[in-house]
Amino acid sequence: MAADSANPVGSSDYLAISIVLVALVPIVSWLLRCNQRPKTFPPGPPTIPILGNIHQMPTTHTYLKFAEWSKQYGDIVGLRIGPQSMVIISSPELIREMFVNRGVIYSGRPVLYVSRDLIFPDQDHMFMMQNDEMLRRTRTALKRLTGPAGLKEALPLQEATAAKLISDLSDGNEPPERCIRLWSFTIAMTAILGPVAEDRASEVLDEWTHIQHRLIESVEATMSSAFELLPFLKYLPFIPWKENAKQIGISLRAVYTDLFGRLKFHLSQAQSSVVDIKYWGLIGSILRDQEREKENVEKTNSHFTDSQLKTLAQFVQDAATDTTLSTAMTCIMALTANPHLLQKVQKEVDAVCGRGSVPSYTNIDKLPYVRACVLETLRWRPPAPVLLPHRLEQDDHIRGFYLPKGTMIIANGWAANHDPGHFERPEVFNPDRFVDAQGYPGLYPFGLGRRSCPGDNFALNTLIIMISKLVSSFDLAFDGPAPDLSIENGYGAGVIMSPKSFPVKFIRRKDIF
């Protein structure tokens, strides 16, 4: 008995330990192998056990690191993020092959924990929708704004908003950057919420901008982190940014709940013939039509809920405001830095519209050099340099490589836009390259294929109208030393490629004011 008590580990204990060790062997083996790059997978940087390439994922200037990898490993770079397969594609031909020619299987969306579960819980945000009926309904609804009739209807409001910007810049009561930000925000808000923008855009701008900056910072902080790429880590407690992300979502919903309520009030007044609304905007037109159809059971079954419409409004505002602002500021900076190009575009506007006359939206198709300036801006400094991630819906073979179902596809739009095979001297801002271009191969600022931005023509019209009025009304000059135009020093390092603040003078042209 004494000997037994001196040996506390019995045969049953040894058996239990042996079972645990045997069970751990395949688990450890899987953990060590799950991150390894299969022989048929595209080449990429070396992996480490368990994490794969997660430690190498860039947190700033993502597109530059991806471009560096592409030069080293080829147009299709394979990464392993733990058990997750990811590929980076950079060539215009490969992006088109995947997103257009094979778009049926390359148009899924990965599930992003921070966005789906924290910021937008229980919401069908278009950025995250899968290829389902809700996505189809949403894209169909957006045609009210982005289809031929919607584009034509929006032209007067785009002109009026641009005219207000010219007036604000001329008055000089506010810093130019704020005037341009208000223009960008107002045009998007009016297109979405119609009459609400007239009395609320200026008041909401600062609050929305603050929330949006927090949103972008939250996404940037987590998009390349282990918490986004290895979602099981979400169960760890006491992660400070998790609560911050939740609060961002709550703040955004509060803003759009207020705006949505105001839009419904305008709708009730219009139904009572109290007011006559000329332009309802996307959400207003949907609400108006759904109200008319409420007795039709077949149609009401496909109606959007109030929650879905608020989310749609939020999506369009988020997608349009900062990208339009970034493009406008970059175009102004590039024209100011290149006086000969500014004079060239002014000469075109004066010739078409008459010196002393302010351009109208009716001139929009007669200003090819203005359009070329906008397109070159989108190529030279694309506001979204890395396109939103796609997800492969089934196994596929491409260019001799095997990609398993579920692979995340990241298209480096900046690299495609700077491909010297498509654009000679791509680092140079040169609108002439788009003057006589037949189509725009290699230019993908709005994405491509089934997931492309449906608002591309709306955005182009907005920018062309504004830039034509701006160069017609003002000469431009830097108010001090010229800013650094390089990506490394002249632009922010986040998901939106925005130029850092730069001092610019808007000098009234003679015969204009």
Structural account:
By secondary structure, this protein is of the alpha+beta class. It has a single domain (55-508), classed as Cytochrome p450. The protein is 54% helix and 7% strand. It contains 19 helices and eight strands. A four-stranded mixed beta sheet has the order 1-2-6-3, covered by helices on one side. The chain is globular. The protein starts with a helix and ends in a 5-residue tail after the last strand. Residues 1-6 have low confidence and may be disordered.
Describe how the helices and strands are arranged.
Elements: H1 2-6, H2 11-33, H3 62-73, E1 76-81, E2 84-89, H4 92-101, H5 113-119, H6 133-146, H7 148-171, H8 176-193, H9 196-222, H10 226-229, H11 240-271, H12 281-292, H13 297-300, H14 306-337, H15 339-353, H16 368-380, E3 390-391, E4 396-398, E5 401-403, E6 408-411, H17 413-417, H18 456-473, E7 474-478, H19 487-490, E8 504-508
Parallel strand pairs: 2-6
Antiparallel strand pairs: 1-2, 3-6, 4-5, 7-8
Helix pairs in contact: 5-11, 6-7, 6-12, 7-8, 7-18, 8-9, 8-12, 8-14, 9-11, 11-14, 14-16, 14-18, 16-18
